[in-house]
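Two proteins follow. First one:
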Amino acid sequence: MTGMNYDWDEIVVPNELVDAWGPEGSETIVAGLSIDYLRFQSESLKNLFKMEKQIIKKHDSETPVTTNFHSLPNKMIDYQKWAKDQDIISYDSYPTYDAPTYKPAFLYDLMRSLKHQPFMLMESAPSQVKWQPYSPLKRPGQMAATELQAVVAHGADTVQFFQLKQAVGGSEKFHSAVIAHSQRTDTRVFKELVDLGHKLKRAGSTILGSTINAKVGIVFDWSNFWSYEYVDGISQDMGYVDLILDYYR
């Protein structure tokens, strides 16, 4: 019976014989097959991470070990199960230029909830990214506002940027950086980053390690995420994340 597998060898890999489709390559006409495969993918990748972490810990038992989580949330990985094996939750935040402010806010809260403690803002963009249909420069003050939203309002304990120096080639050569192609330190972006650093240094002792006593809770669950979106017959316009965001907003 689908949903009653006892061994990973019983998992059916998505293929045309079971009508696979969808951007993740894991959606089938039989929802249980898709859900089984997503669980298999998440657990297999987690086992790889645990193996790599164990190797690192043999040489350094003190430095925290983590791996980047990122937005949407990622349907292929159950962050809630992965969180148990992270020494600290780290998150890459790249909201689109037209994203409503409540969407990154929800994702920050989700990251903080994974271990019920502050998280690490592992990556963010000093200005423009290179992968959106339109990738505008961030307006004056916009970068600081998005970083402070994560740190002050939603429990991040770090602010870090990708990348330090702008690449001269490759797919991310037009992705913004702390130091642009010009190599100058008198650019607007560089000056705004320095100013942000000063502000965080002044506020750090007040907000570092802070937590919040929430008055309202919203349940986000990866099994429900998978089950809801892989069951046909209700409405293709109903997305699990979109519904959660409606309530969160």
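Second one, unrelated to the first:
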Amino acid sequence: MKSNKLLTTLLTTVTLAALLGTAPITVKASNYSSNVTAKQKKHYVIQNAPKLSKWGYVLNVNSSTQPIFVGKNNYKKLLNNPLFKGTKTVNPKEIKNIKFKVIKIMKFKNVNGAPEYLITSKSHKYNAWTPSSGLQYYAIHNKSLKRVINPLKRMSKRDSERLNKKTTAKGAISGQKRIAQNKHDFDLAVKSARKLKGNQRKFVLGSLQQMKQDDGIRNVMQEKQNNILLWSIN
């Protein structure tokens, strides 16, 4: 499972570099001047991410392949420029206890590519653009969360099998039966989430409620990009 997540992160990083680095150039020549203006077409759009930002500093970076740029000055430079590369970086393993908040989301236009997220630590000391595969809820491995996570993993597995052509013909659950089983597991997750305490309870119940509103019971995979809790469900 970890190797699949690492591979996803690597592929997304390569895709990002290709998309941002090889965009076509449109050249406009003027009849009145020898100057030539080159305008680079952007294949992405950067937006605010209110559904994610509202939770505050609840994320850890769990990918060693993703560099974290060090320095408060980098934050403003990264806000609308995913191409910016700071000179000082730190390996996420060295700051594994630092919590991050999502600030922006970058979506690609007319091309395939997983969304990228701008994350920052408190005081903006550490910053990075990264795919969700390189992030996780900081308490995801706590024993108290297992009874919430396991039903969600079963839902995700059903949805993955439904989309996988190799397993669909052999017995992937589809239609009303799959949705009914997803709803059963979702209710189990909510029941367990109500037993959590403090901020963890608020975050998990809020994420599950958002999942329900976004029709995530029917299709968990479709709603992952706007739900931090689901980023760690594989």
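SUMMARY FIELD: Residues 78 and 84 are 6 Å apart (CA to CA). Residues 1-11, 21-39 have pLDDT under 50 and may be disordered.
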